[in-house]
What we know:
The chain is α/β, with parallel strands linked by helices. It contains seven helices and six strands, in the order H-E-H-H-E-H-E-H-E-H-E-H-E. The chain has helices at residues 4-18, 31-34, 40-50, 71-83, 97-109, 127-131, 143-158; strands spanning 24-28, 61-63, 91-94, 119-123, 137-140, 173-175. Helix 1 runs parallel beside helix 3 and helix 4 (71-83) crosses helix 5. The chain is globular, with a radius of gyration of 18 Å.
Amino acid sequence: MAEPFASAMTLAIDYLRGCGHRRIMLATSSDYLEVPAYRRIENWFEYARSEKYLDRKMEYLIPLGHEHGNLKHLREVLLPALKRCPSDATALICMNHAILMAALSAAWHLKIKIPEDLSLVVIGDTILSDFSQPPITGISVNLEQHMELAMQAIMGHEQHLEPVSKPQLVTPELVRRASVKNLYDHR
């Protein structure tokens, strides 16, 4: 589970579980489920079940289709999914910010309050997360550090330096904001 995606998902799940969430939904595009290069989502589900993060494979997965940039389409898929979600589901992880924006819109249409009724976490962290209402908790993949490592590799290749012998992994970080309700907080 050393790859960045698995680390980001594990960090999100650990944080939500630490706040008392036991039934966590995942909204993702079908590409993450079907394209061979993205078999990692299936591997993550296997890992999640073995680590007792999830006890049912597909019940809490919301596949959104292939229209990534079409926010209206994403919202139209999320509306019925959120309407019929299991009553014990208290949190939703969005795989990217397009899905997050569609989830916020669908929740608003359904009068679902964030985080009172549903906690949200997004994989990735941009200015959109900070300016959303409420501000959205995210998993920063440290894009700047990825870019710096990539530039070092390119410059090393151009200068005929020895290639990096092993991949350098960048650890994701949790950016806590107001979109996650702590279910253990009894105030």
